[in-house]
Fold:
Amino acid sequence: MAVVFSKPKALTDAPLHYCPGCTHGIIHRLVAEAIDDLDILGKTVGVAPVGCAVMAYDYFSCDMVEAAHGRAPAVATGLKRAMPDRIIFTYQGDGDLASIGMAETVHAATRNENITVIFVNNAIYGMTGGQMAPTSLPGQVTQTSPYGRDVKTVGYPIKVCELLSGLDAPYYIERVAVNSVKNVTRAKKAIRRAFENQIEGKGFSLIEVISSCPTNWGMTPQKALDWVESDMIPYYPLGVYRDKSAKEAE
Amino acid sequence: MYTQILIAGFGGQGILFAGKVLAYKGLTEDRQISWLPSYGPEMRGGTANCSVIVSDTPVGSPIVHDPDILIVMNLPSLDKYENDVVKDGFIFVDSTLIERKVERQDVKAVYIPATKMARDLGIPTLANMIILGRVIRETGVVSMDGLKDALAKTVSAKHQDLIEANLKAIEAGYNYGE
Amino acid sequence: MAKVLMKGNEAIAEAAIRSGCRHYFGYPITPQTEIAAYMAKRMPKIGGTFLQAESEISAINMVYGVSSAGLRVMTSSSSPGVSLKQEGISYLAGCDLPALIVNVQRGGPGLGGIQPSQSDYFQATKGGGHGDYRLIVLAPASVQEMADLTAKAFDLADKYRMPAMLLADGTIGQMMEPVELPEDMRTAVYEKPWAVTGTQGKREHNIVNSLYLVPEQLEKKNIERYERYRLYEQNEVMVEEYMTEDADVCVVAFGIAARVSKNAITAARAKGIKAGLIRPITLYPFPKEAIRKAAGHVKGFVSVELSMGQMIDDIRLAEGCAKPVTLCNRVGGMIPSPDEVLKAIEKMEGGEF
Structure:
């Protein structure tokens, strides 16, 4: 019998702890498929964040480091400087990357550090039970914005791709989503691209993946995917924000 | 011998450098040495001072509280440290920059117009070395032999061309008054 | 081997390189910036990494990354910057990662001043960051020791899988003394099978991690770690005893305070007072045995510190409050003079405490 579907080698057999309907599982799989496709499992080291994906170190079968909250790009910098021939990626959520770790993110980007950053934006702090994130939408109700995010007092969401595109250095920045088959296919391509860039020594690549959090958004999984389409994507437009290969080709 | 030296003046007068020359000279004589600068914002334009100990026994505290030899290149430093010098110690005064005399009677005061001499010799930045020459002459804390080697170690690689001028300044101070 | 004159800070940097450290991450702060400047010059020439990080926090996490890869790595700072590093230090300890953290102390708290201090003693020896952990803490008192203890710190860190702190002060960092540096300062090579260097398809994946959500597991981890600390405590105490055999008054001091105290002891002996010095070189482990032994014959102890009195607690614990302990201290960047220490010795000798 022909095998038509199997688990990527870059994932372990550990059962994922993510909530039903959460799209972290899809994103894990896309990262693992990229590692498999590029045949880099034996030389890849991943950096897990603090947040929902904290236990990613149990799920990826490559060597893994668990970083302090927000510090993954600094840890990845150390790993890459120590082992320039290894492939280093971070997997971070929105609180980790865009709030407490913003300095690490911006500076790794502006050094064009040759690493791959997978940034999962679900507009909420999931692990701690649904508090406002730096990427929560205006008016979004969370545990710590019970009357809706009031931009007059807590400011506007941070658009990471747009912000980092203001820097001269970063090599590749793209925003994708995983709420439809079409978007998953695009996301897969983008993530693979981000690893290829590193293999070729091009520098900093960040893929922002718009993700869903049915549990903390208080929606069914299907409704959550619809909300990504109706509310998240209009605020966070998908697409390539930086691609230096285009310039190189000229 | 356990000689404690305090050199003080304004930032930019080469206070720390003069201390370094003494320290390197001591090192080449196989003596025990310590060199401690004042550090921080006051290094720029404010007062600068530097503690040097040249000894035949291990150096304890590197901080010179009661100098055997005080070298001052501005009035505030003389005012501040004159009374700290040990009885029968030395005070070296740049008499171009400090008009008043040393008040203490129980120390040996040595006056040398180092800044004027430096100007006249066309080496205006080396008054520190002129005083140092006088210090060596009067106290014998280090010897004049092999001074060039010590200078070569003190001066950074890209400034080796300045060794001769420094040597000239030290000799001018050493021979002052003859 | 020829002796050269070096600043204490530079001696640390050169010794680190000669101990096999090829990665340095730091952020400028007085009075230790010479270390960064030295590394910035040297590392590119020997294929190493010097990186000025965006913050102290990033610097210590870059250290965490390199250490995870199994390589020798260091960062350096001064008191306020070391406070910022505490999160990372706790994580290093929680992952049993070796690393060298240099603290060239300045006065505090807060922004404090830039002059020398020893007021981070508690932070270094009692924790600093969150959780149950200890650091290897070494206290150099000369430029030569800045170099030697840097090499020693790397060795101990690798051997016991603990972060090590070199607890210096602005004076020792800024002063120059003759120093001898062997070409290779490594004493042993330590296998690091736990390092995350890529599985190469040949082994299960390694994980560097300090998260244990099952309390029984976390408890076990902590207990195992403390068993290692016990071994370190038993085997690695370093202390200098100076004229203690017949001492009536025992000064206890480390770093620059010990240098000043030696002058005072010489002066006291000249006056016929039998004074001696115990100089802890390891602050953790604290040289309890030397203190206990001295307590058998001295009238009392004088703790000389550039703090409001931090090490004095450890002296009292070590001698079980058997003898009086007085404090002779200056703070805020001030250093006690030999005269001040002599007076404290004389008071103790005279039974005033």
Q: What stands out?
A: Residues 23 and 49 of chain C are 5 Å apart (CA to CA). Chain C has two domains: 4-198+222-235, 239-349.
